[in-house]
Amino acid sequence: MDRVKIARETLMTAMITVFGLFGIDKFIHPAAWLGWVAPWIENLSGISRGTWLRVAGGYELLLAAALVFPHRLVRRIAAWGMVIHLIFVLTQTGFNDLFVRDLGLLLSAIALGILL
Fold it and tell me: Which region, left, alpha or beta, applies to residue 75 given φ > 0 means left and ψ of -120 to 50 means alpha?
């Protein structure tokens, strides 16, 4: 197996795992995530933060599932969807340890989008 294929498969596995587990956890432990949903989102949209949390969790699960789907274009769209999602997340966290983690995920998603 060539190195590019190994790198692509490793990145796909990592992103499927992270987005899948985070998406599931938003439904199982919403209280742990609710503090990360910006309060202004309720005023902007009229939709509760809890609903936004479920939407984000569903979106993360959809992206993880799309990476599993055996069609290259679907996988590429999912990778760039992860990039967009992570850019939005980074605008909300401020500079802290979670920012650094999410920046690493963002760079991984960009690399995956390029490799697909």
Answer: alpha
CA-based nearest residue to 80, from 116, 56, 53, 55: 116
Q: Record the tokens describing residue 24, joined without a space.
A: 């599931």
Q: What is the dihedral of CA 4, 73, 63, 13, to 10 degrees?
A: -20
* Total domains in the fold of the chain: 1
Residues for the chain: how many in total? 116
- Supply the pTM of this predicted model: 0.89
Q: Could you list the residue range(s) of the whole structural domain that residue 96 is in?
A: 3-115
Per residue, what are the HEC states of 32-45? HHHCCCCCHHHHHH
DSSP string, 73-107: HHHHHHHHHHHHHHHHHHHHH-SSHHHHHHHHHHH
> What's the pLDDT tens digit per position in 29-81?
999 999 888 888 887 878 888 999 999 999 999 999 999 998 999 999 999 99
Asked if 70 contacts 116 with a C-beta cutoff of 8 angstroms, the reply is no
What does DSSP assign to residue 29? -
